[in-house]
# Entry
Amino acid sequence: MDPARFAAELPGLFDDFPGSEHPRGRRFDDVIAGVPNLAMENNLALVSLAASLLGTGESYVEAGTYMGASLIAAARGNEGADLVAIDNFRFGPMSVEGRSLPAANRAALEANLARFGVGGATILDGDAVATLREGALAGRSVGVFYYDACHDYEPQLEALRLVEPYLAEPALVVVDDSDWSQVAGAIRDYLAGQPRARLLVEVGGSDAGQPQWWSGMAVLAWGGV
Ligand SMILES: C[S@@+](CC[C@H](N)C(=O)[O-])C[C@H]1O[C@@H](n2cnc3c(N)ncnc32)[C@H](O)[C@@H]1O
# Structure
């Protein structure tokens, strides 16, 4: 993983970063339309770019997969990548931003992955913190860790700490919904206590007047510094 390359290439995905409503290259509007999700196309483009930069033998791991939109984005154009999804499937049904979101469901996730041609992903059914703590990633070198599971302060912070032993050198850690105060606080406190990580990119979402980025994203660079 090359964090500097990620930071350099991200703006180039858009005509006017971060203001563009959509990426200009590889598109994800079909995923947004076809899979219940909590994202915008721009968020998926960012995830896809991160996954495209995985080094040989590195894995993409996400906590918080729901119906698969972010995982499909990670897979798109990145055939052969080792993909891992952690989810406890305890979300919804609910309505968010006018979107009617059905209850999380593993069978529906698997059907969505199959429909979008994503095969071979490892799905770990369980609490993200417990799954990481139990060593479920043993033997993997995680080039990208994307966190979009429980955004309460404690589990968010704990997940960032627990994934460290499995991160590649260097790696990217993508945190979704960084507009939210509990998420921002966890990132701030994590970085304050971990000199091996640094804030690489932060894109504000709705709270920053950029709903095209949902609730914002923060990308941390791990190691290699
Ligand atoms: C915001 S949704 C993920 C959206 C997804 N990334 C997308 O692109 O549409 C959050 C997901 O995290 C899962 N989740 C919530 N708390 C969790 C936890 N403690 N451990 C594992 N998964 C959790 C929920 O079941 C839900 O599927």
Q: What stands out?
A: The chain has one domain: 3-222. The first helix runs from residue 3 to 9. The pocket of S-adenosylmethionine is lined by residues 37-39, 63-66, 69-70, 86-91, 104, 127-128, 148-150, 155 (CB under 6 Å). The radius of gyration is 16 Å.
